[in-house]
Specification:
The complex is a heterodimer of chains A (about 300) and B (about 675).
Chain A lengths: L2 H8 L3 H13 L2 H23 L31 H7 L2 H28 L1 H15 L3 H12 L3 H28 L2 H9 L3 H38 L10 H8 L8 H27 L11
Helix pairs in contact in A: 2-12, 3-12, 4-12, 5-8, 5-10, 6-8, 7-8, 8-10, 9-10, 10-11, 10-12, 11-12
Chain B lengths: L7 E11 L5 E12 L4 E5 L6 H8 L8 E9 L2 E2 L5 H7 L4 E4 L3 H4 L6 H12 L7 H11 L5 H5 L8 H14 L4 E5 L7 H18 L2 E5 L3 H7 L2 E6 L2 E7 H6 L4 H8 L38 H5 L5 E2 L5 E2 L29 E10 L6 H6 L9 E9 L3 E5 L6 H8 L7 E6 L3 E2 L9 H6 E4 L3 H4 L6 H13 L3 H14 L16 H14 L4 E5 L7 H18 L2 E5 L3 H7 L2 E6 L2 E7 H4 L6 H8 L39 H5 L4 E3 L5 E3 L4 H11 L1
Parallel strand pairs in B: 3-8, 3-9, 6-7, 7-8, 15-20, 15-21, 18-19, 19-20
Antiparallel strand pairs in B: 1-2, 1-4, 4-5, 9-10, 10-12, 11-12, 13-14, 13-16, 16-17, 21-22, 22-24, 23-24
Classes of the chains: A mainly alpha (about 300), B alpha/beta (about 675).
Amino acid sequence: MNMKLENFAKSRGVFASLYKVLADMLSRPSGKLGLSLVCFHIILAIISPAITPYDFKVMDADLILKGPSALHWLGTDNLGRDILSRTMLGGRQALMVTIVATFLAIAWGGMLGILLGLIGGWIENSILRLVDAFLSIPWILFLLLIVSVVGLGNAILIPTLAFFYGIPVVRMSRAATHDVVALDYITAARARGESRVTIVRKELLPNVLDILLVEGAMRWSWMLLAFSSLSFLGFGVAPPAADWGLMISGSRSYMAIAPLAVLAPVVALSTLIIGINLSADALAKALGIDRAQKAPV
Amino acid sequence: MNTTPPLIEVKDLSIGFDNHAGDTLPILRNIDLTLYPGETIGLVGESGCGKSTLALAMMGFLKPPLRVLNGVSLFKGQDMFSLNDSELESIRGGDLALIPQNAGQSLTPTMRIGKQIIEALRLHTNLPKEQWYARAVELLTQVRLPEPEILLARYPHELSGGQQQRGAIAMALAAEPDVLLLDEPTTGLDVTTQAHVLELLRALALETGTAMVYVSHDLGAIAQVCDQVVVMYAGEIVFSGTANQVLKRPVHPYARGLLSSIPRLKDAVVPPSMPGQPPAPGGVGKGCAFVDRCSMAEHRCYEERPALEVTAKSELVRCHFYQKIDQLPPVEMPTRRESNIADQADILLNLDQVAISYTKPRILDQILGKQSKAPATVDRIDLKIARGETIGLVGESGSGKSTILRAIAGLITPVNGTIKFDSSENLNQIVDKRSKDVLRRIQMIFQNPDSSLNPRHTVAEILAQPLKLYFGLQGQELRDRTEALLNRVRLRTDYLERLPSQLSGGEKQRVAIARAFAAAPDLVLCDEVTSALDVSVQAAVLELLTELQGERFTTYIFVSHDLSVVRAVADRVAVLYLGRLCETGPSENVFGIPSHPYTEALLGAVLEPDPDVRPKLVAEDILELSPPTTGCPFQRRCSRRIGKVCDQEVPPWQMTMDGHEIACHIPLRELRALQEKKA
């Protein structure tokens, strides 16, 4: 690290702390691997329309279920489409939908949770019971209901996913708020006579945000799985779009003839999810949330 | 001297871990230690000196990422680190038992005590099934628990802290171990309970001949139990000898510094502090580890690591110049500090019949205007505190000391009585309703600086908060003032940009003190401010508080369970039991006789770091959560009960000439006669 970067690391501010956290994450093997996997997938999703060798929806009757060749590296599927091109494009919609939905889920769940933790009393309790009630609903059935009534599309998927995945966040951010509120520095700020807004903004939020960030990263990976499951069931993305879940469901009957048609999207999806999980792990350690792993003394 | 083979032999043991950068940092360095049957060895040192790591290594346990760098730890000749898990399991809990610091947490909360003891009997002894119950009763009797049959059917949370610790000891004894490893077994217990548990351990060592390794930072506790004492510093043994040698006339400068930084009940002064702090792992140079803090360090000490030498009295000492230590002038005791009170009649804070309750009255009772039946947490508190005074509030946990502080700070409101500040301001309101000036004039310092400083804020931000809030300081002015404050608590200016996690415990508490004094307060509420700190650091923090008081004429309310600390700083003392005042008065009177039977019990339980001074156990060790509804609050534990009157009538306040008051039914003259006879 050169001098300039070192000074930057010592300075304060959002970017500097972001830099510090990133540097810490990259100093761990899990962080290195995780972040590179996630970055790879995000970059691929952005640039893939420009670099795919073939058009993802062009079918070729002469090339049905062919194995890998020099022209089609991963072979072709049951409609004669290029598997490599489809796999490269297959994460675009999943990433877009889940990133937006995760952000929304953490935002509403986190805010409501903090608010509940601060208000306390019977309001907190009654809303929490409501949260429990929603947690007991099998969300995928609920989603199927919504989709069959309102119809397919991102405008339906994103809010629904954000809603269902935000519910456990309410519980968690409420618990985190409770933990922090009980600490002496909050008591000290109260005894000093600081205003409520200052206490929440300066004392509470920085300490709860860390936990929300890590939670968000974890939720993102679960949401990706959920989105792919929906596509697999035919409720996410409509054909002929290239999507990993859709590709798996479309090619699974021909798995014995062209295994790569299923394998390629599976590998893509799992590397992304593993990458997110590893990054979340490293993030938790970098933020000092995961205390058990701290060095002794 | 011993012909029997040793139980534990630690030979040239070094333990360490690899850090991020790939360096190996040692935690323990070349430890040699032998424990023979029937011996009790105490391991002492400040936190971070490796005592607990060593004790756990004796059990063959290493906290990850620690690893053995060198040497062996033998138990009955077997290398504990070469055994597999099932072999270790049969030794641990069987021949070798550990009693951890917090017994309440080591007992299973959902299992009755009896079942847990029987479990230990089933696993580690060959006793036939039908004898288990009888043996469990016997064990509880052995650890001096009253009514063992009843206690066996209890769950851990139904026992007091001391009873839980006894239960854990009984469980450990069930397997008839050869060695008991005790890791700070009485830290966190009340003084009276601690004295009881230590007495029990001492008796057990004599009765059963069990060998013990006792890890503690508290030399007073070590003095009660151990015959051999090993002093550790920066992961190595620096001094060892018999308890008398180590605690009476230590020839190592570190042991000497530790010993003299302990406040003594008889002295009434803040003891001299030991500067500095132990080096971090890997922070020891090629010379002596203690060199930076040593008053007799010479050139050689920086260059050459001293070896562990045997003295003429067969102590072991790691110092180049231990023979010269007697030529050092004796550690200078500061003189009794001057009281800051200008005028005893100038009352800054007046508590009049204050009652505080955590339970809200039920809505129906509120409507009907009925008093709730549950006794208040704190009741009938009358205290007048003069400007510039230091008043000590003492009592066991649950005595309501902190509750009173919280009411004064405005975090809770009293249900009854009035709190008046500076003769005019009414403090019965919660913080939100107090004026900014009143808020500024009352500041609080908390027990644990780990939780009282926001981990996300730098020292500069922490100190700026009160300056911005109360004085509206900004820019250069703010920076200058923050720096001045930091310098005043003897921290360097480059600490301003550090986060609390980059400071040691003592440094954090200094920052917390600086934050309180940033407001230029008249009244500072100190809630157990030194109990989370090492003794060496405690002395320095007390010294700082005394100095600041002298400069600024501040009034302190000093809450502590440690009577020696209160004796060192307080002008006056108020003793509380279950939220009721028992005794108030000038500290020399309260700490003398006659005193309230509860004060007597507290004083008797104070541990002196001297093997020849034993605590006097007077009060019963039982769990009391709320005071009895009638009579004296202390009736159930009092050793001087005189009869029905104690149960039925609230004891009267008996006054002496010098402002000393005792709430007891026994006439003062009689009380004095009784206590003199005992002394």
